[in-house]
């Protein structure tokens, strides 16, 4: 993990909805994100209650802004608010330190 | 969410192990963390494959250091490396912006 990169923490609660359609869009968004300039990595977990945390890592803030404004992603964001999420929280953070096990 | 607080992103893969003991310790650590000075919030998700993301939010870096060095938490960290986690990644980040839906 590059230090001084940025992390976008997306914590969300799924509402009831079409899970296959959601899964397809979520996978498509991950594939798309990986093609965006400045993309570094993504980690995503959702449990059986529909609570999920996705963290994506980016080289800088302009890369995050560009991804946020990307057409197909904008459409997904709108569907998210209208259909898929009961609530979500989104935080943009600067990574200050990083360590791993095994190191 | 207070701006300019800090987020600790803990991404981990459980190894096989005693799930009841793990759950008990994980719950105990969350209860303890909530009593620590500077603690703000915690969000935690683990899926059926054992992949988990826990994000805790803290007022400042000294609060995070104090929690990391807290005796009962140190013991849990050692058990984590020895027994519970195949791998983990830990990032400390400064929260730069935050938004929620519904707003």
Written description of the protein model:
- The structure is a homodimer of 103-residue chains.
- Chain A is α+β, with helices and mostly antiparallel strands.
- Chain A contains three helices and four strands.
- The first copy, chain A, has helices at residues 19-35, 61-68, 71-84, and strands at residues 6-14, 39-46, 51-58, 85-101.
- A four-stranded antiparallel beta sheet of chain A has the order 2-3-1-4.
- In chain A, a hairpin with a 4-residue loop joins β2 (39-46) and β3.
- In chain A, α1 (19-35) runs antiparallel to α3.
- Chain A is globular.
- β4 (85-101) of chain A pairs antiparallel with β4 of chain B, so a sheet runs across the interface.
Unreliable residue runs of chain A: none
Number of helices, where a helix is a run of at least 4 consecutive DSSP H or I residues of chain A: 3
Strand order of the largest sheet of chain A: 2-3-1-4
Count of strand segments of chain A: 4
* Main sheet attributes: strand count, strand direction, barrel closure of chain A: 4 strands, antiparallel
Mean pLDDT reading of chain A: 94
Give the assembly state of these chains: homodimer
Distance between the termini of chain A: 12 Å
Q: Greatest interface and its residue counts? A: A-B, 35 and 34 residues
Q: What helical percentage do the residues of chain A reach?
A: 25-40%
**DSSP strand content of chain A:** 35-45%
Helical/strand content category of chain A: alpha+beta
Task: Tell me the radius of gyration of chain A.
Answer: 14 Å
- What is the molecular shape of chain A? globular
């Amino acid at each position: 993990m590059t230090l001084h990169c940025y992390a976008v923490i997306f914590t969300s609660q799924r509402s009831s909805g079409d899970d296959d359609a959601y899964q397809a869009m979520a996978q498509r968004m991950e594939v798309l994100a990986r093609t965006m300039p400045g993309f570094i990595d993504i980690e995503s977990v959702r449990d059986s209650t529909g609570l999920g945390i996705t963290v994506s890592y980016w080289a800088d803030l302009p890369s995050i802004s560009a991804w946020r404004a990307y057409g197909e992603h904008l459409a997904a964001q709108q569907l998210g608010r209208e259909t898929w999420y009961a609530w979500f929280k989104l935080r943009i953070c600067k990574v200050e330190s990083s360590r791993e096990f095994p190191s």
